[in-house]
Amino acid sequence: MEARPLTVATFNVKDLFEAGFAAKLTELARHLDRAGADLVALQEIGSERALDALVARLARCADYKHRLVGSPDRRGIRNAILSTFPLEGAVVHERAALPFPVFTPGDPEPFGARIPLRRGIPEVTVRHPTLGKVTMLSVHLKSKRPQAAKTSSAEEIPITTPHDLAAAEVRSLVARLAEALFVRGLVDAATARGAEIVCAGDLNDTAESLPVGLIRGRGAAALVSAAAGLPGGERVSALHGAPAQIDHLLVSPTLASRLVEARFFNEDLREHPHADDAPPTPDSDHALFMARFE
After folding, report:
1. How confident is the model at residue 129 (pLDDT cuts 50, 70, 90)?
2. What are phi and psi of 182, to 5 degrees?
3. Could you tell me whether strands 259-265 and 132-140 are parallel, antiparallel, or unpaired per DSSP bridges?
């Protein structure tokens, strides 16, 4: 049997709400066509109708016969996975509340039910002809934006002092850490089933951060960043104030050993305004990241 490469990609497409937004569909499809990925993890899909419209624009639209779409957050964005391979397994992980580590078994949950899993995490497993069983997760962790405290009626309490801001940043980090711990558990479970792992998505943090480190793990079985071998100047997937890589492809060691290409499509990346009333843009504020294994 002729060896077949496996190409994977992750892309936060930024607010794909309007299925008829022709300019945006064209721009997103241009990057996806360049990647030519077999497995694509997407973030910020507004609806399945919008995803249908995007797939219809792809040069290989007929190849992407298999998909899994996650549940949305309160803003209506969700994660998804497209696959050219049949799905041997497919599940969307959802949790109304995430646990947080306690110091002693039996201690009460330190945050009760205050930390939700904002966006359901799609997980698919496919069978590659030469690499065997491969499991992909499409993940979108909470952003680094400070999280204000809320009243009992869910109204945000204004941040007025430096201490208020520091507390809001701690809340944001705690939520992201809880999500990362949950994802680490999903990686452990997939590893125990004997699958190669691709944990893909917008993790809203850098490779050196604690949340991303928790997902990677430690030791011989730790996941490896597919971007690790690229020059630092090329590891840029967003310009949120400063150039950084916050979109990741974390893969199991065996896959990492077979990596032959990794690339960020960031040539046209630009800073985007982040005001609530900012108009929609045809381009994303994230770069597509692809990796190929043989």
Report:
1. very high
2. -65, -45
3. unpaired
Q: By the 8 A CB rule, do 133 and 194 touch?
A: yes
d(CA 4, CA 258): 12
Residue 1 lies in a domain: no
List Cα–Cα distances, 156 to 146, 153, 168, in angstroms. Answer: 12, 9, 11
Q: Is residue 93 part of a domain?
A: yes
User: What's the confidence (pLDDT) of residue 19?
Assistant: 67
Residue 291 region by backbone torsions, left for phi larger than 0, else alpha for psi between -120 and 50, else beta: beta
**In this predicted structure, what is the pLDDT of residue 3?**
74
Sign of CA dihedral 121, 246, 225, 293: positive
d(CA 151, CA 136): 38
Residue 39: inside a domain: yes
Residue 279 forms part of a structural domain: yes
What's 246's domain CATH number? 3.60.10.10
> Which residue has tokens 């990596």?
259
- Let me know how many helices (H) and strands (E) the chain has, helices first: 5, 12
Q: How confident is the model at residue 44 (pLDDT cuts 50, 70, 90)?
A: very high
Q: How many domains in the chain?
A: 1
**Residue span of the structural domain in which 31 resides:** 6-293
pLDDT at 279: 82
Instruction: Please name every residue paired with 10 in a beta bridge, in sequence order, or none if there are none.
Output: 41, 289
Mean pLDDT, the chain, integer: 95
* Number of CB atoms found within 10 A of residue 106's CB: 5
Closest CA to 136 of 219, 56, 200, 223: 200
Residue 197 pLDDT: 98
Q: Look up residue 271 and give its two tokens.
A: 């800073």
